[in-house]
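Action item from last week, closing it out:
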Amino acid sequence: MRKLLLITFFSLTVSASKLFPVPFNKQLNEANGVIYGEFLGQSYKKMHTGKIVTEASFRLIQSVGVGNRYLVNKNLFRVYFDGGIWQGLHHVNDTAPKFKNSVEYVILLKRDEFGFRPQMDKLGTYEVIRNKDVFGIKSLAFPTHPKIGFIPYRTFDLWVKTVYGSYMDETRENKFVYREHKKADRAPASISKETKVTKKPSISIFWVAMIFGLLGALRMRKYRHSK
């Protein structure tokens, strides 16, 4: 009983933290990229460090700032955050985002050695609100905040353009397939160089042949005149 209480207390003290509203442009500036996707589901895993995390999977719709090599499969993009359930024990994270199946979200990403995570958990996570009258993103952390609680999508996209230099890009099939640059790609240039090199001797041989031909003609003419 004492051991269980110690474990529960430990998990609460580790995850105890508080979020504060941060201006949206500052959030964008500190992020490594942004995705807009549909939530598919989540699972739990134990990292090699012993930390328990939740892995959330998304079908990508748009993105910006994320390297092409990380966007190979648009139908399965994962982000992780601290906390989850492991062997029946709840590892509580008070700032973890809570996703709903088939709902679309905009997530500001932070990359580390384990992968991508929502920047400051639910502070960098926004639910997409779309109907005939409204299209925008709602903060999971501060949904009633006057400045970051709800942001019209057009305003959000303009902020993205300001920070990243481009608007959110549609993630199309095979658009982001990452291919390593191979040395073989340079072959055509080197082949053309070799072709130029081999042409030079052929031109010089032509002129040598012409000179010898003229000399032969002159000798023949001289020979005829001597007769």
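Closing note: The helical segments are 2-15, 24-30, 153-164, 187-226.
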